[in-house]
Each structure stands twice: as C-alpha cells, then as structure tokens.
Design brief:
13 helices, alpha/beta, TIM Barrel, about 290 residues, globular
Length: about 290
C-alpha cells in the first residue's frame, strides 16, 4: 500500500519532551548522547525491558526500539537476524507498545520507535500515534517513509505530542536537508555511510561533511548512526554531532549471549565503554559549527 502524496507543512519541533531533555542533560554534563538500538522481542519480548535497563545503567541516554519487520532493507545481517528472531517470538507492533508500557513502570529513558513504514501503516497512523503516546513512547523514525509522503503520519504524530525523526544522507541535497530537518522533532538522524546498518571498522569519510551540512540547516541536535561500533568511532564523531547511534554492536552481543545470564552485565559494560568515548569539551563547539 502506498501513502498518498501530499504537501507537508513544517511541524512544530517539539523541544520540551524527554528526548530534548536528554540532549540538554548531556550538554550540561559535557557529553554527547548515546542512542542505543535494540530490536524489541529479541531474544524474547519478556527480556527486552531488562536489556533496556542494562543499556540505561551503562549510560545510554536514548533508546531506539526496533519494531521487527520481515523485509528490513536498510539493515545488515545482524539486525535482520534479530528481526527474524523477534518475529518468531511473536513480537508485533502492539507487543512493542506493551514493552514500552512495562518499561515506564521503572524508567523514564526516552524511547524512539524505529520501524519500517509497513507495520505502522497497517496499524494505522492515528491509532499508532495515540497508542504510542499513551504508553510513553517519545517519538518514531520510519526509515523508508519519504518526507513528500509523510503528511498524514506527521500530522497524527504531532497531534499526539510525539517527535518525528527523519534521516538525511550524504546524497541528500542541502535544500532537501533543510526541508527534512524542518519536519523533525527531537533530533535529526544523519546516516554516516551509504548502504545498510552493520559493524564497520572505520567512519566513512563523508560523515563529518554531512554533519556540518546538517548543522547548517537546523538548531535541533544531530545524531549520527549506521556503522558506529567501536569506542574510537564515538571519539571521532563527538566533536561534530550531539548524539551517536549504536545498533549492530549491541544486537550482535545479544545474539551471541542470548542464553547467557551475564548478557545484561555485558550490555551494560559495552554501553559504558561507548559512553566514555562521547566525552567532549566546550572547545569542540567550534568543530560542530555553532
């Protein structure tokens, strides 16, 4: 099913919620935000809240909670396998929302639902926005939804007080970066490299120029993701971005130790290592371009 094309008017950039507060706190503490991704329901829905708790104890500032999908075209093999495991365990959009509802009994960490368009479209934009807001989701990123076709989605999300996060890439023209950023709330997600998610040995050479171009287009925080998997990657992007998204490194750890009672401790330790790499000094504001 294709979303009807329509013009999208700029949305209010919702800057008073948990996502904005997390970036503000990091700024005051002299750090960049660690945005940790994991797939809801992997290895089982019953364990996801515990895994989020471990990431939070390790210093993660925002959680990207992946909605499993059968055709995750933007994801590499590690997250593809996680989606397959989560789907086999019976994880649906509704179950993802129930996980957040359970999380909110013990944690106020910001949660961004990371999904492809199809599951949310089938659930219904209005219903998704209302239900997500009611359980404590803070925003969402639909990775394959073009801004030109996002009017209905953006309208329903804004009506429920939820942030819309959109992607910009190295191939996005400057005018389009400005347009996309104008419809974001919470932060703008800069894709560090062409291709799919996954563990990489180095940061793409185009990553920093993209961050600088995005910074010129918005006053929102800019977070960078896709391929960040080592502490030194955190250190490399910290002078240029307000946040770093780590996904495959965490998901791979979950895959390798899903039956291990020490999984939570391992996740906590890995998150702490990444967070330490995101320390920064006020002098690096000049690099960001403020």
């Amino acid at each position: 099913m294709r979303v009807a094309e329509s013009s999208v008017t700029p949305s209010p950039q919702l800057n008073s919620g948990r996502i904005a507060q997390a970036f503000t706190r990091c700024d005051l503490e002299g750090s960049r935000a660690l945005i940790a991704f994991l797939t809801a329901g992997d290895p089982s829905p019953d364990r996801t809240v515990s895994l989020i708790g471990a990431l939070e104890r390790g210093g993660s500032d925002i959680i990207e909670l992946g909605v499993p999908f059968s055709d995750p075209i933007a994801d590499g093999p590690v997250i593809q396998r996680a989606s397959e495991r989560a789907l086999r365990s019976g994880t649906t959009v509704r179950k993802v929302l129930r996980i957040v509802e359970e999380l909110r009994r013990t944690s106020q960490i910001p949660v961004v639902a990371f999904s492809y368009l199809n599951p949310v479209l089938r659930y219904g934009f209005e219903r998704f926005a209302a239900d997500a807001a009611s359980v404590g989701v803070d925003g969402a990123l639909l990775t394959d939804l073009n801004i030109e076709e996002a009017a209905g989605y953006v309208s329903e999300m804004n009506a429920s007080g939820l942030d819309c996060v959109f992607l910009v890439t190295q191939t996005t023209p400057q005018e389009r970066i400005a347009r996309i950023a104008g419809h974001c709330g919470g932060f703008v997600y800069a894709v560090s490299r062409a291709g799919v998610t996954g563990v990489r040995s180095s940061i793409a050479s185009d990553a920093v120029p993209l961050l600088r171009r995005t910074r010129r287009a918005t006053s929102l925080p800019v977070a960078i993701g896709f391929g960040l998997s080592q502490r030194r990657h955190m250190e490399e992007v910290a002078p240029f971005a307000e946040g770093a998204v780590v996904g495959s490194a965490f998901v791979r750890l979950i895959e390798e130790h899903s039956r291990d009672e020490s999984l939570e401790a391992r996740l906590e330790a890995l998150a702490r290592e990444f967070k330490r790499g995101l320390d920064w000094s006020p002098a690096s504001d000049a690099a960001v371009g403020r």
